[in-house]
TrEMBL record:
GO terms for biological process: fatty acid biosynthetic process. Keywords: Lyase. This is Acyl dehydratase. It comes from Pseudovibrio exalbescens. It comes from the Bacteria.
Length: 151
């Protein structure tokens, strides 16, 4: 679990990054299906998945994308940031047992509106499984929530 860290716009710099590593468990996929309502058998049924090119159940693409949200909401920039948009390009499947390595990096700081454009990459081993960009509005230091390092 990521510890909370609230950063202000002034704290950010181009090239700053944060990462998260998560091993996908069957209960994660079942829980995501319950939460989202997406009960497509490609995610939940070994029998169904065996008849697809994937051969075994795969994680929901938005489950993988939600790990990007975890970084944005807790660490970079963290509490107080407002998620404005996200592009997602799904490149390869994620299976139960895979270790997903998520990296979010500040690509651009936009002074007007105090926004940050962030590149987002999820990999399993050497394979990029998801890539995209997020745009977030980041509070100025004077408006930022109390610093929450370590909570």
């Amino acid at each position: 679990m990521l510890h909370l860290r609230a950063l202000s716009y002034e704290d950010l710099y181009v090239g700053m990054s944060e990462e998260l590593v998560k091993t996908v468990k069957a209960q994660d996929i079942i829980g995501f299906a319950e939460l989202s309502g997406d009960r497509n058998p490609i995610h939940l049924s070994q029998h169904f998945a065996a008849k697809t090119p994937f051969k075994t159940p795969i994680a929901h693409g938005l489950y993988t994308a939600s790990l990007i949200s975890a970084i944005l909401g807790t660490r970079l920039p963290g509490p107080g940031a407002i998620y404005l948009s996200q592009t997602l390009n799904f490149k390869a499947p994620v299976h139960i047992g895979d270790e997903i390595h998520v990296v979010v990096t500040v690509a651009e700081l936009i002074e007007k509106g105090h926004r940050a454009r962030l590149t987002c990459t999820c990999t399993v081993g050497d394979t990029i499984v998801l890539e995209g960009e997020a745009l977030v509005k980041v509070p100025l230091a004077e408006d930022a929530p109390e610093k929450l390092e370590g909570h």
